[in-house]
Amino acid sequence: MSHADTAAHFHHHLATYKNQESLAYTLVGLLHMLYSTRDVKVTLFGESLNGLSTVDILTKIQHTASRNEGTALEVAALTDIVQQAVDTPSITTAVIDVGQLLKHDVSLATALANANASSTTVSNSEPADVVLYGFGRIGRILTRLLLEEAVSSKGLQLRAIVVRPGKAGDIAKRASLLERDSVHGMFSGSVTIDETNNGIIVNGRFIQIIYANDPSTIDYTSYGINDAIVIDNTGIWKDEEGLGKHLQSKGVKKVLLTAPAQGNIKNVVFGVNSDTIGDDEIVSAASCTTNAITPSLKVLNDEYGIENGHVETIHAFTNDQNLIDNYHKADRRGRSAVLNMVITSTGAAKAVGKALPELQGKLTGNAIRVPTPNVSLAILNLTLKQAPASAQALNRFFKDVSDTDKWQSQIAYSDSIEAVSTDFVGTKQVGIVDSEATIVTDNHATVYIWYDNEVGYSTQVLRVAAQMADIHYTHISA
After folding, report:
1. Fewer Cβ atoms within 10 Å of its own Cβ: the N or the C terminal residue of the chain?
2. CATH 3.40.50.970 matches 128-259
3. Is the whole-model pTM more than 0.90?
């Protein structure tokens, strides 16, 4: 290529990008207008576009090639659909998936008519107070997810965080841990301290810090909090007696546990058995591993049937383990988490049976904690009733499933031969099938599923919380 051709090539691509960038700026304004005035969220194959920068939006659009037969969607086409939504006043309290509409060439008007005809619930996004009981890894990720989008007076509203009484400077320390994270990086927003009122201000929203040792002793109504959903992420209480203490507090309506529950409390994996929640006052969002594998196990069982299997979890170490060898009440967990692979137990396989009764008693499970701080890998070793034709056929099945509107937020698909665990930090899809590792021999299949055991799980927790709060959006998609 000559110097003149190279220069022309450079200027052509620069002009193209400038045009896309200009459209993206327009798109950002339209997205904010829909969200702030009509509570309409826009997603791209299930991933929210609200609150993103123009660069982030362009990047996400470029990555749509893997979902659209190798061709990325056009920024202009997305902008056109969003503009149509702005021009349609009847669209309120809704989620519009522009990726699915464009991929399947379905007009916004047709999708809206279909959504209205098939909807069985009334759209509702009235504000629901949320209290986080505990502020560890999951508590801080939940806070980030709740507050990273543009300010809205609708939907889940984080009002308070409850922690054990601390020493002087406690609030400043906790605010710093929210703002600065060694795994997930700096929080994309502002975090300031309000010492006078014992709280923190995150992106303009005041969050009350409450100190308590006993859930039953707090009067939330004294802070203006009513009918709250308490998300207990301490893991201290796991049965009705313990979690029921929250319901004894003034201002609490329901309780959501971020760990597998004991007794008769439902273990819910959103998208799989979330239709069973009903009016339950106490619900469990199961575990990160259960959420990561249950959607894939469900679609596999529906398509091929599962005779039996074993789940091995290669799991990032957790705060429960020791940095160096020291006493621990559990076997092996006292040994250094950063120096060892540690075999331990997991209840994920049994918990799958609670969320998916047809697999009750068919799965065994174990876990190996490894010296990485986040992102885990579940290996499904399964005997299927119907044998897939090949590993390629099974991968094609997973690819097709991951592209559907129903499963795109729960199941993702990776075909990279270079993918490693850190590539999936921050991934909001609950489980990512690594197609390059799939093995099929007769009716035996081995499937590898990556998952961000913090962010992916937390997105599921918030979906369950929204359902418990009776928050429903009209879903406009292909």
Report:
1. N
2. no
3. yes
